[in-house]
């Protein structure tokens, strides 16, 4: 990993918490304190249990966040892209990161230190309120995911994941714009790699999806949605 300077004011990530609040005069004193970090594909920039080093905002790239489960297996808990926030689960609690994070492709990150973030929260109520709503939304998503795992079978969980990444990253030339191994799909869907492969193969035979290497393209969004309609999670 290396540092690279990018300017918040010329950033195109309108979804980023920092970018959304650049119109406030107080923000100018804080954006100059950030660090930019460049990660190569597969680089780990957050280690689960490590001391908190502030929040990361994705300037460019894609990231997976993971949490260690039973028998030391890493479970993917979130996939993120440009403008998303990383490391917020540990912020303001035990001063340690509750997740690990890896770059899924070459990625540029903006890091705001603990001290800088606390100063922003204390001095800019609009930012604090927006972050509070973000936490509430993430809590709701986490609760839904718990129910999902309890009530969905393996096929439904894989379908739910495919629809999620389709919404999150979109399709380019008929393929979802993210490279995920079959193991990563299994980790996020809460199943084994073998089961994930079988479901993907079945969906492909049914002509609901197509595959090109690691990439998957959804051919019949409505039919996949209908399979998990009763769960109301898509």
UniProtKB/TrEMBL annotation:
InterPro entries: cNMP-bd_dom (IPR000595), cNMP-bd_dom_sf (IPR018490), Env_Response_Regulators (IPR050397), HTH_CRP (IPR012318), RmlC-like_jellyroll (IPR014710), WH-like_DNA-bd_sf (IPR036388), WH_DNA-bd_sf (IPR036390). The keyword Transport does not apply. One of its GO terms (molecular function) is DNA binding. SMART domains: cNMP, HTH_CRP. GO terms for cellular component: cytosol. Residues 152-222 form the HTH crp-type domain. It comes from the Bacteria. Residues 18-87 form the Cyclic nucleotide-binding domain. Keywords: DNA-binding, Transcription, Transcription regulation. This is Crp/Fnr family transcriptional regulator. It comes from Flavobacterium panici.
């Amino acid at each position: 990993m290396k540092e690279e300077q990018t300017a918040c004011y010329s950033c195109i990530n309108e979804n980023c918490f920092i970018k959304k609040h650049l119109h406030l005069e107080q923000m100018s004193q804080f954006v100059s304190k950030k660090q930019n970090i460049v990660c190569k594909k597969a680089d780990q920039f957050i280690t689960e249990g490590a001391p908190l080093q502030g929040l990361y905002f994705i300037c460019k790239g894609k990231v997976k966040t993971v949490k260690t489960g039973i028998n030391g297996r890493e479970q993917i808990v979130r996939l993120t892209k440009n403008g998303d926030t990383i490391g917020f689960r540990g912020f303001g609690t035990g001063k340690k990161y509750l997740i690990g994070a890896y770059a899924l492709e070459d990625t540029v990150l903006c890091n705001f230190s603990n001290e800088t973030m606390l100063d922003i929260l204390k001095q800019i109520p609009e930012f604090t309120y927006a972050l509070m709503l973000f936490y509430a939304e993430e809590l709701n998503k986490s609760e839904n995911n718990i129910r999902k795992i309890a009530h969905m079978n393996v096929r439904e969980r894989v379908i739910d994941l495919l629809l999620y990444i389709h919404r999150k990253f979109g399709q380019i030339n008929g393929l979802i714009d993210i490279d995920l191994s079959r193991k990563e799909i299994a980790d996020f869907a809460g199943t084994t790699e073998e089961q994930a492969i079988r479901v993907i193969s079945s969906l492909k035979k049914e002509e609901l999806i197509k595959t090109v290497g690691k990439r998957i393209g959804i051919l019949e969004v409505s039919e996949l949605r209908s399979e998990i309609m009763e769960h109301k999670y898509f």
